[in-house]
Amino acid sequence: MTKSTKPSGTGRGNESTWIENLSRETLLKLIEIGDGHSIVRPELYQEAGLPDKIIEFFTEVHRSRRVPTEELQVLVADTVEKVFDELSTDGYEYDEYCAEELSFEIAANIADHGFKDIYDMIRYSPKETIFTNGVIVDELKGVYSLDLLESVARGLNLPLKCLSGRGFRFADARNAIKIYLDIEKSTK
């Protein structure tokens, strides 16, 4: 989810005022922090000259996402289909009883298939896992570099392309700011 360009509680009027008040030097440093995938230590943004109130707004706890294994997904889907088939032949409509029956059958089926622990049924999402020094971490507090840089570019009313990759979006925001700072010429 993308952050607003106006951190709450800044006491500023226009939502992009904090961005417009950033020095050229700070903008030059900001475009070199992160890559669109990184969760960055807030201290790096302090060193770049970003005000603490802004850093606080963009700092949050990010969590690695766990998802069901494919085996569990198939098991649950098969169980749901079986329960709905049985209930529909018995003339039941979906109701509270159906939900209880479904929950029970899914749990029973999981137990019958030898899952002893919740961790037997889940894995880390390939796209939403956080690593620190090559080790998976469940959570990490920091600034998502893509959110911050896109917010700066939008606050400066710079045109951003509608791109799907996080790295491509970061590079686009970085290039837009470089053009704004007259470091790079537009390719239009």
Structure, described:
With 188 residues, this protein is an alpha+beta fold. It folds into two domains: 17-63 and 131-180, no CATH class; 66-124, no CATH class. 47% of the residues lie in helices and 13% in strands. The chain contains eight helices and seven strands, in the order H-H-E-H-H-E-E-H-H-E-E-E-E-H-H. It has helices at 17-20, 24-30, 42-48, 52-58, 70-89, 96-112, 145-155, 166-180, and strands at residues 39-40, 59-63, 66-68, 122-124, 130-132, 135-137, 139-144. The strands form three sheets. A three-stranded antiparallel β-sheet has the order 1-7-2. A two-stranded antiparallel ribbon has the order 3-4. The longest helix has 20 residues, at 70-89. Mean pLDDT is 83; it is low at 8-15.
